[in-house]
């Protein structure tokens, strides 16, 4: 796992950078190449995703949501979600409380 503030390669089409967290909230930038897939998963944290660039096809609890540059998506606690990059782009994810699993 990368150090806070350093880019970490997740796979061939995705890399991420975790920003310095607060006490109960944290942010992470995720860069996708065209076709990059964030596998479906869930976690007890609430999440907001802001699209800095690109267009993304999200699946949240079985519903498809198209999110484009400048738009935000709320992902509730424990919702099963995943994403596919329809073009190269960057997401800014915010979580509360802290994603300890990403900080270790």
Automatic annotation (TrEMBL):
It comes from the Bacteria. InterPro entries: Bacilysin_H2HPP_isomerase, Cupin_2, KdgF, RmlC-like_jellyroll, RmlC_Cupin_sf. Residues 29-87 form the Cupin type-2 domain. Pfam families: Cupin_2 (PF07883). SUPFAM superfamilies: RmlC-like cupins. This is Cupin.
